[in-house]
What we know:
Structural class: mainly beta
Order of helices and strands: EEEEEEEEEEE
Helix content: under 10%
Strand content: over 45%
Largest sheet: 7 strands, mixed
Number of strands: 11
Distance between the termini: 40 Å
Shape: globular
Radius of gyration: 13 Å
Oligomer: single chain
Amino acid sequence: EVHLVEFGGGLVQPGGSLRLSCAASGFTFSDYGMSWGRQAPGKGLEWIASIGRIGRTFKYADSVLGRFIISRDNAKKMVYLQMGSLKPEDTAVYYCAKGYYDRSSDFTQSDRGQGTQVAVSS
């Protein structure tokens, strides 16, 4: 059974940084790309970043390109999202997901964790 646990969310000021982590279990981690998505208040689930199986391929949504960096550690079965230059519109519940998604994929069909809340506010 796929099990994903996100942590590291919190309250941060605009312009600040935050690092999210996701611990994976229940599948062969290194066989799969991994992704992050988010759901802002009152909005739908949005894919934002993906990383390939060995961490050499990446894709980002335009909304986070240049500000967020996805990475992974296959030995630890962890995936990370380093977020910088945060904006109030980045406020959302952030989810990690098994699989390599992009803007044309249906991220709502992904296996995801329970999410971690990020709030960007002064």
